Amino acid sequence: EVWKDLLEDGRLNSAPGPSPPTAKGKKTAAAVAAGCSVPPRSRETLEFCLSWDMPNIRFGAGQREHHR
């Protein structure tokens, strides 16, 4: 879905509001896209910040779950 959306017009579109939770056992992914107009022989800077919340974390064989 992400690639199809990006190929249409070079932009990522998403519905407003929060995303639905990922179902147990399903994998999830994310994408970030930013754009601007850059005149010839010049440069621009785009700055963004990513953050996420991982309240339940499993390491190794997944035998122990850590909570924040």
From TrEMBL:
Sequence segments annotated as region (Disordered)? 1-26
Question: What superkingdom heads the lineage?
Answer: Eukaryota
Which InterPro entries does the record match to this protein?
Answer: GH116_N, Non-lysos_glucosylceramidase
Under Pfam families, the record lists: Glyco_hydr_116N (PF12215)
- Show where the Glycosyl-hydrolase family 116 N-terminal domain sits: 1-68
- Composition bias, Basic and acidic residues: 1-11
Q: What is this protein called?
A: Glycosyl-hydrolase family 116 N-terminal domain-containing protein
Species the sequence originates in: Xenopus tropicalis (Western clawed frog)
